Every structure is written in structure tokens, then in C-alpha cells.
């Protein structure tokens, strides 16, 4: 465009120069001066047009660059909210494996979803009202086909209710006054029996029913009973998830107090603690629950976990229900673990655990579980590969039951 204008300017100027020379010879000095003035005015006008053209070109280039940047920014954001004031994040994981179980007479291989951390997806929306106040929403669902807690000798493809809701809630988080939760989600006492710094919870933790929970015991004659692993163990982990209103205080000295009013006239309260003492990590929780149940008046439970700077760790948990009649069920749990970095993939965690549950299903029952766990992190893949083994034994008055052994191997990949 600039070149065209310059050529036009030169052509016009040359023509006028020739014309002015001819006219000057014919008409005299006055006409020559007038023609020169016209040429100068036209040249200035053409210079102005050239500058305008250059500015127009710059504006067009800038607009194109801005559009490209906006397109790139939109691509980088990925998930976007319909409201510019709200941050939206999509996350979750898939957790699949294979489980082998031996009931003393027969063994089976199952393709499973690990109930220790079921396959799930969540959407979190957050908006900062002020520097201190954040409001948000949470929607979380799980897709658990063939749960490790549900497959059994009678049902190798336990896919009923594989799609379930976990969290449907709103929350208000204030740095000075604490956090208020409304809707379906974690109760105040949820997780209070499962504080665990070992790094091996994917392969096994205080809840014995997670691995082979539906596998049935056999009697000494080889016949299946109607008693499964999950019915004789209970880690009494608070009130789980439910529709409720929950409040958490701000952290003070590592402590957070929580309380909630739950559907069906139930309620619970808990105290959590986390701290780091020069590389030694400590975490713990204690909780009280009133389930408003016909069989349980109340429940007290808790857990504590300590991991030393060198990787050695210890986890303890216990709980007791106050039954409306009969003996009070209880459990005790211990895990000894070690974390190290043996390779370039990530942290490697080992552990061994032991659980005793009494009077959970039938008065006089004593169920014991012993397990080994291994979890290998693969940081660059956002993956954890794991292996777990458990053996279960049930002593029941008047019965002679065979032990159950279960193995689990799998991987959890996060997104």
C-alpha cells in the first residue's frame, strides 16, 4: 500500500512538473508560482494519506494479534465458568485393578474398581467475594464398576449402583470465622478413623471391608456361610457422608473443631490436628457421633499417625459403639510403615498392618486381619501403582470357619 501511494505521488508530481514547465513557457511567471503551490499542497495531502494507510495497517495487525492471543488464552483455560467471577476446576481419577480371593476351598479372580479410592470425577466452583471470604460449590460422583467391597463368590460382576453421588454441596469459607458447608458431603466425623501418613492407604488401611469385603466365609465342611468379611469388621469411621449442615473453625495451633447436624436427627463433632515438627509430621482426629439409630446410642472413635523425617511411620486407630442392647462393638488397628525414594519414579511406601474387631456382627465374635501393602508413585504420569495382601480370620462361638486370603494389584491415575 505504501509503495502504491509513493508511486502515485511521484507520477502526479512529474506530470504536474511537466505541465507547469509548459504552462510557464506559455503563460508567464505568475502562473508558474500558482502551479508550484498546487503541487506542494497535493504532495502534503498524499503524505497524509500515506500516514493514514500505515496507521490502518498497524491497527489491523494489532487486532489480529489480539484475536490470536485471546484464542490461545481460551484454549489454555480449558474448563470455563459461565460467570467470569467464578473459578471452575474439573478433576478426578480412575482406579482399576485385579483382585484374587481364596476362601479356603475355591479361589476366584475379579476385575475390580478399588473401593479404597473409587473411580470418580468432581467439579469445584469458587468465587472470591473478598480477600477473606470464598464461596463455592462441589459436585462429585463416582463410577464404581465391580467394587472390591462388593464382588463375591456369588456375584463376580457386582455393578449394581455403580454410579452414585458423593458430594452435592455449597460452602462459605472465611479465613477469620471458619467454613460452613450445606448439602451432601463429608460429615464432621468422616475420616476420623482413617488418618494415615503411611502413603499406602490405596492398598490397605483401617477399613478391612474395602478389600474383599463381600467375600463369604466357609465353614470347615466347605459350605459357604452368609457371613462376609465386611459384616464382621467395622472401623467406625464417624458418620460418613450425608445431607447435613457442618461448621469448621479456623485452624488454631494446628487444631480444627468441627460439628454438624445430619439428616434423620443425627449429629456429630470432631477435632482434627496436624503439625510438622522439624520434618516429623503428626496428624490425628477424635470424634463423637450420635447416629440416632435403633441399635447404636453413640460412637467414639479416633486415629493418629506419625511419620518421621527418615520415612518410618506409625498409625493407630480405635473405636467403640455404645449399643442399645448387648455388648458394645469395638475395633483396634495398628500399621507400621516406611517411605523412601528407591528410584526416579517417585516415593515408594511399604507397610504392614493388624486389625482386631470384637462383637461387630454377633456377640462373642473376634475377627482379625493382617495385611501387607506396597505403593509406588510415578510422578510424571500422575499415577500410583499398588499391591496389597490381606488374610482374615473369624473366631465365632459354635462355628469353625476357614480363613480368607485376598490379593489386590492395580493403579490409580489422576487427572
TrEMBL record:
<dbReference type="InterPro" id="IPR023614">
    <property type="entry name" value="Porin_dom_sf"/>
</dbReference>
<feature type="signal peptide">
    <location>
        <begin position="1"/>
        <end position="26"/>
    </location>
</feature>
<feature type="coiled-coil region">
    <location>
        <begin position="32"/>
        <end position="66"/>
    </location>
</feature>
<keyword id="KW-0175">Coiled coil</keyword>
<keyword id="KW-0732">Signal</keyword>
<protein>
    <recommendedName>
        <fullName>Porin</fullName>
    </recommendedName>
</protein>
